[in-house]
Amino acid sequence: RGSGQLRKHRFGFKPPDSAAPRILTKPHIFEAELEDAPVQAAAPDLVSALGQLELPQAAACSFPELQLDPDGVTVKLQCNEGHGGCFPLHFDNAGPPSRR
After folding, report:
1. Which residues sit opposite 29 in a β-bridge?
2. pTM of the entire structure?
3. How many Å separate Cα 62 from the centre of its chain?
4. Checking phi first, is residue 11 left (phi over 0); if not, alpha (psi -120 to 50) or beta?
């Protein structure tokens, strides 16, 4: 986090009665996506090891009825400073038309 490669965690949702989505920032939580160039440069061994897992491909083969897109996977690195911030296991679903 100190090197500036992790950004504050933000999330959004669209209330059913409003056309405008709300974007909120969670305190004490910082993140980066594995595809981010600075992360790849700082942690090439981690990027390589996670790339060899082939988890998205295995999930798509195991659950064909879900029509998963093996390329629609993002791995996030996260730093939680405590004070209530924690995501031990988390899945995003962006909703249609995304097949992530």
Report:
1. 80
2. 0.60
3. 22
4. beta
Closest CA to 6 of 73, 77, 81: 77
Distance separating alpha carbons of residues 45 and 52, to the nearest angstrom = 11
Question: Any idea what DSSP says for residue 33?
Answer: E
Residue given tokens 């390589």 in the structure block: 48
> pLDDT tens per residue, the chain (100 residues)?
556 678 888 888 777 776 788 888 888 888 888 888 888 888 889 888 887 888 888 888 998 998 888 777 777 788 888 776 666 655 666 666 665 5
Q: Count CB-CB contacts under 10 A for residue 51.
A: 10
Could you tell me which residues come within 8 angstroms of residue 43 by beta carbon, excluding any fewer than 6 positions away? 77
